[in-house]
Structure formats: C-alpha cells, structure tokens
Amino acid sequence: MNSNFESRYTISPNEAKQMDTATLRSNFLIENLFIADQVNLTLSHFDRYIVGGAMPTTQKLAIPNPDNIKANYFLERRELGIINVGAKGIVTADGEQYEIDYKEALYLGKGIKEVHFESVDGNNPAKFYLNSAPAHHAYPSKKITKADAEIVELGSMETANHRIINKLIVNSVVQTCQVQMGMTELKAGSVWNTMPAHTHDRRMEAYFYFEVPENQSVCHFMGQPQETRHIWMQNEQAVISPNWSIHSGAGTSNYSFIWGMAGENLDYGDMDHCSITELK
Fold this sequence. Notes:
By secondary structure, the chain is mainly β. It has a single domain (2-278), classed as Jelly Rolls (Sandwich). Helices cover 5% and strands 44% of the residues. It is built from two helices and 24 strands. The strands form five sheets. It has a seven-stranded mixed sheet with strand order 1-3-4-11-6-9-12, with no helix packed on it. Strand 19 and strand 20 (227-233) form a beta hairpin. The radius of gyration is 18 Å and the shape is globular. Pathway: Glycan metabolism; pectin degradation; 2-dehydro-3-deoxy-D-gluconate from pectin: step 4/5. Keywords: Isomerase, Metal-binding, Zinc. Its EC number is 5.3.1.17. InterPro entries: KduI, KduI/IolB_isomerase, KduI_N, RmlC-like_jellyroll, RmlC_Cupin_sf.
C-alpha cells in the first residue's frame, strides 16, 4: 500500500502577512487528497489536526501509522472522522464493517487498532475524506447519515449565500473528544460560504471543497479580519484555517464543502463574528 504523510508547522498572523502567493499556498493549501490506492495525510501543528484522503480502487487500504505521531497504531491516542465524497465504500474498524455511501459519515473512537478502506466497485471508487485529532477518551464508533444530521438552513438568494448546513459529527449527534465535522451545500445561484465571516480563537478548522463544477473554482479567504488573504482552490482540495483566521469563500458557481475543527470546546456557536463592512 502506498501512503504519503506531510507535516506542516504553525504560522503566526505576522508571518502570513509577509507571504507571497506560492508561500501562502504551500503552507495552507492541501492539493492532492485522492490518488488511486493511496492514503494521503497532512498533519497541521495547529491543534495536531490531520487532514487526509483515501481512495481504494484495486485493493483494500489500511490507515498508516506515521512515525511523527509516535504511537503504536494510528488511533492509539486519536479519533477519526470520515465522510465519503465518492461512490459507496466500506470501512472496517477492528473487524466491524460499516457501509458508507455518498455524503455519509463515520466516527471512529480512540483505541481502534486496525482501520481499512475499500470500494464496493473499484471502477467507481469511494473517496474517504479524513479528519483526525488527539483524543483523551474512547467514545463509541457511529455511522451518521444525512437523516441523522442536525440540519440548518441559512442565508438567502439576495445575498448569494443560501445554504444548507448538515451537522454530521457534532456533539448533538455523536460524542467526540474534539473532532467536529459537517457539510455545507450551497443552493444554485449562491456562491458565498460562511459570510458574515468569523474567527474562533479556541479552535482551528479545515475546509474541503467539492462538487465544484468543471472549469469552475472557489476563492477561499483567510487571514485576520483586517488583513485578509485569498487562495484560489479547485475541486477536492482542502485548506488549513488557523484559529486566528477567518474562513470564508466565494465560488464561480455553487458548490459544497466539508468543515472540520478541533480545539478547546465542542460549542458549535463559539464564534467571534466579523462585520462584513469591517473586513479589509
């Protein structure tokens, strides 16, 4: 099995202000998540968060155990959130199988020794998007469908941000130590996500953009509210958002994205809001 692991150090807002486009992208953008028969993991030193992707085609894939986490196995002191953004697949956790369809989620708790990913049809593979954070307690694993999710409708067509938020791996749906994940789907004609913007000094976040139509892109905005920067992103790419940064975006078409976060609390509403007219 092939795997790729990368470690990214934390960046301060003062450093980020000095970065050119290439340096900004190399520190925050994660470009290649899904490669056939490979597991790709990127560790951010912001809250020791790991963002990854697994796309099994001709073989079953095991989650690697990078030396950087200094553990006997990947989930020895971690938990894992999984959302499938491809065709139907199967996740096997210590012998228990979970069939995960498109836009369904799975939470795996601390202490699971073996995790394997496979596709039901290798010619139409599953794409397992992965988020992991350190864990202090072993909570039960749980599959979450959109029927189980806490769903919120926000925004409006008039402000181009009409969207549906599906809270999948959150404390109102499943017990976790740190990891929270959900999926936001923009309605046709709407392009702005997470606007008005916010920060939260208690948690970092990662955004994964998908369902971006061919020949379209998303412009992701980051940085302190009065010192913003942007990163142009393509379909099925992710971006690391530090706790000092806003995390918002606008696309040339509507799209979907997965948000994942970890930090000091599990309060979804813990946000320091930024007025639109004060952004710079």
